[in-house]
Structure formats: C-alpha cells, structure tokens
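Give me structure tokens for this 485-residue protein.
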Amino acid sequence: MSEAHDPSRLELTRRRFFRACAGGVSGALGAAALGNLFARDGYGMPGAPGGGPHFRPKAKRVIYMHMEGAPSQLDLFDHKPELAKYYDVDLPDSIRQGQRLTTMTSGQQRFPCAPSIFEFKRYANQQDGVMLSELIPHTAAIADRLCFVHSMHTDAINHEPAITFFQTGTQQPGRPSFGSWISYGLGSANENLPTFVVLITQGLGNMQALSARFWGSGFLPGEHQGCRMRGSGDPVLYLGDPAGVSRPDRRRMLDLVGALNRREAERSLDPEVETRIAQYEMAYRMQASVPELTDLSDEDEATLELYGPDVRKAGSFAANCLMARRLVERGVRFVQLYMRGWDAHNNLPREIRAQCAAVDQPQAALILDLERRGLLEDTLVLWGGEFGRTVYSQGQLSEANYGRDHHPRCFTIWMAGGGVQPGITFGRTDDFSYNIVEDPVDVHDLHATLLHLLGFDHERLVYRFQGRGMRLTDVFGRVRHELLA
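Here you go.
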C-alpha cells in the first residue's frame, strides 16, 4: 500500500486540516463556545472519540455503586413472608429444577431453606409501596426516588467472571469496562480531571480479589481506562512534585517529553503514544485540580452530617459517596464506587448488618444531595452486586445464623435519577426468590437501557477491533422501556 493510500496517513492529514481550520483567535473562540454548548447539553466536547450521543440524553453522567461479593436480595429487598413455614425444609426439587451449584455447596447433603431473620416494612413509593429490610432504613426512606428491579439475572456463578460480565458485557477478560465505553462515547466535560474515576472501600466481611481490569479500557485507547483514587495518603500517586522541582520546571520537562513523544507518534503511527502524551498532560493538570477536589473545607456541616459519621474517614463508603458527588459536580462522566465484603457464605446476619451500617446512610445521602443540587435528574445512579444469594443455607443453619451461596438466577438492583422511572418495582421472583416468574432482565438488557438513557443506541456505539465492530452489549440486549420515566 502506498503512503498516499495508507488510512493512518490520511487520518493524520485530516487531523492537521481540522487543526489548521481551528487556528487563530476566532477559531479558538468558536471551538470554546461550541465546546461549552456541547458540554452544557450533555454531549461532551466536539470530537468525542465515540462521536457523542446518537440522540438527546436524559443522563449526562453515571455513579455506579458496585457491591462486590453480592448482597443477599432475600435479606434486603425481596420480601418472602411465605418462607417462614419452610424453615429448615429442603428446597423442593420443583423449585431447584436441577440447576447448577457452586463447588462450595454441591457436596452438601441437604439444602435447607433459610428465611431471612430480618423484619421488613412497607415504604411508600409511586405504586402500592415496597417492602424493604430493617437493615436499610435510610435507603428505604427514599424509596419513592428509587427503581427496584427484582428480576435481574446473569450467566456467571462465580465472582471473577460475574463482575467481569457486569463491568464489560462478557465473562471473558480483555474487553473495555462500562465506564471506558462512556468515556469513549461522551468524551470529557472537564479537562482537569479524568473522565472515569474509581473509588474503593474495603469492606467488613469476606472480600474477593478486585482486579484493575474491571475498570480497564481493553482494546479502546488507554486514555479511557478508569483512574483509581486512593483512600489514604495522596489520592493519586506522585501528585506533588519532588523537592526542588518548581511548577515551571515541571512544565518545561513535560514540553520536552511531549515533543519527543510527538516525534515518535509521527514515526510509528502508534495511537498509544498519543495516549501517553494526553496522560502526562492530564497528570500535570491534576496536580492542581485534585487537591481542590479533595479539600472538604467548603462543605457545610449539614452536608457532612447527611452522609454520616464516617464521612471524614478517608476511604470509607461515606467519604467516597461524597467524593462521587464532588466529582460529577466537576464534570466527571463516570464514577465507579466499589464496596467490598458482601460475600456472606457463613455468618451472614453478622456480616450483612455491618455492611449495611457502612453503606445505608451514605448511599441515601448521595441521592438526596444530588437531588437538592439539581444533579439527580441528569445523573444516572446504579446500585447492585454481581449476582444474588441462595434461599438455602450454606453450612450450619440455626434460627439466628446461616450463610448463603452464590445465586445467578435472580437478584435485585436499584437505580435512580437520569431518566429512570422513580418509585417503582419491576419484575417478580417465586416464593423462594430462586426463579424469575415475571419480567426477567439480563445484564445485556441493563447495559442497553443505561446506554439509551445516556443517549446511545447500544447497537451503534461501536469500536472496530480485530475485524469486527465491537460493542458493550455484543450481539445481545434490548432497551427496557418499562424502566424509563
């Protein structure tokens, strides 16, 4: 192929052409004005890598709270009062239907039903009310803002592939994460902070491994991977310059490195070199923006009290919820919160009490705080684990204690804001919370629906890789319009 017909050379030629057209004061002012209009309307900056939304979005940003380890729907959301009469009775074969088990319970001689020991109460919503657990009173108090989906299901039965599936749309490692797709599709609304930020809270129970690839960019350009902010010490490593290095010194150093990298990009045509240049520049800007972001001195006492007593404890779920609000307030497109420790195979009552005590008030506060600041209507909030928990007890069952194994057949998530229909419950499970009997929703459906709210046709948000158009939903998924406002 001649150089004249090399697509990458043509791309460079087009890039130079548009850069030249945007040159000069009038071009710069025009680009800035257009950028502000796009950012204000939620379309990202002009030239967003994925082209921007396909239609006007209802949501401009996402806060995704992933409860790693999988909370028990039976003890929090999916009220099954009829289970009381099945205490210590083996799960009927007509319910289990020969479905697969994990290796952790496949050797059990019995599968005794374990009704939840926690009380449920009816809370007002936009329908006839919703029954919620005593463990989450703050969340229950805002039930009229929440959309509960009781009929989620997934293909994976173990943590690593199940989390990978939720984050990337496939159980196989190597695909871009949901946040990376949003970064690619929408582009940035704040040039001083990453488009995709990850915050992690260490939980109080059994914690599974948390792989950095859960927020990786896969085959998308590296600039779209999530930036993890730490809960202790500097939020980002090497935030400060070394002793004796001034700000002008750092600027001159980056200019020199940038020039060398641009020369290499011209030589190799490697897009990752461009990514490296962009990352260096972002790191330089973050040296100024991150200290301002993490300085809570501008938060009033009422706001801090809203999030609860742990809000001043770095790395706590309360602190991370407040940080999520501050991030989206500053234009970050996708904030991923991980709360570890929900994998309650044994001693579930003790562990779930502690986990709920850590998350209940902060997550409710986040919704209320977004709402009062006018951000909830265009911020899409998602809460859920990677699968559910079994109705039968893992290990020893007593009236005060039990464990629950992994259960992919049905579980509950909730959403709020961003065009989601508030105050409803959707889907229904059987009396054992074991099988879905009404309106099943799979992971691809969820992704398609979330992308729709963000202004994307999930079949058209595509990246060409290895000879085919790749997408978050692969060749599956349908938008569940029943969940939309």
